[in-house]
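ok trying this again, last paste got cut off
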Amino acid sequence: MIEFNLAHLVASDARDTKKRGFFMKEAYSKIEKKFGTDLMYQFMENAHVVLEGEMVYTEPPERIRTKKRLGIF
């Protein structure tokens, strides 16, 4: 989803961290490794913007291209 600009932020429903882990640092670390620091910071900023009730900055989505099977479809 991130590759095609279909995801704009990372979120969690961490209400009870005693029963379930809270892995936001790990999530942002993986985004940074795969997509770079700029996109990681953009996701962090977008999360703050949502909490403020403002519009989220996004890039236009890209078409997801599927592989053709047997060269027909």
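PB: full thing came through this time. The chain has a mean pLDDT of 85.
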